[in-house]
Predict the structure.
Amino acid sequence: MSRIIFATGNQNKMREIREIMQGFQVDGENVEILSMKEAGVYAEIVEDGKTFAENASIKAKAIAALTPGDFVMADDSGLEIDALNKEPGIYSARYLGEDTSYRIKNAKLIERLNGVPDEKRMARFVCAIATVLPDGTLLTTEGTIEGRIGYEEKGNNGFGYDPIFLVPPYIQTSAELTEEEKNAISHRGKALRSMREMIERYMNEGTDCK
Ligand code: IMP
């Protein structure tokens, strides 16, 4: 049976990818979807790319080298704030230090936007997905969700920067959405759905060529 190994240890991401890749088949057979841990794969990966897509590709290629013949998917994501020159961007997880709480990171970003009016508080979550196919081909997709940075943390769902990210029409943060509501519009959901389409297109075209 074919396998998709998703390069994450995050259970929320695993739930989302399982839901989006549900029913995905190769040669008429369902594909098993595993986390790195479930597949027994471990790697220390240095994410030194300059873009989300580069970092996702670095992760996917490093894991694929350990599990040839599988589909290997990886993601990289973050928050870009226009008024801060797109910071924290690819450094979102590392902003102010990897171990610093998001309460502190969020408070700092709000402080840095002090005096910036609503219409200049534009921001977006970006997610890149990279997949190495069993034949070694690398595919990448990107998804975004546009929003604005609020003035205080709101909501208890989600994670990271969700409590300060206001989604249109800017009444609620993404931490106030249910998991289903967020997945339906999220950067990761969009990138994963276009990745599924891209893989299916690639595989169908490959079959047609034979
Ligand atoms: P990674 O792609 O899992 O390394 O995530 C990078 C960082 O971006 C996370 O640690 C969060 O700080 C931020 N981030 C990415 N996606 C989201 C999201 O959906 N909500 C809140 N923060 C996010």
The first helix runs from residue 11 to 20. The beta strands are 3-6, 25-26, 29-30, 32-35, 71-81, 87-88, 122-132, 138-149, 165-167, 172-173.
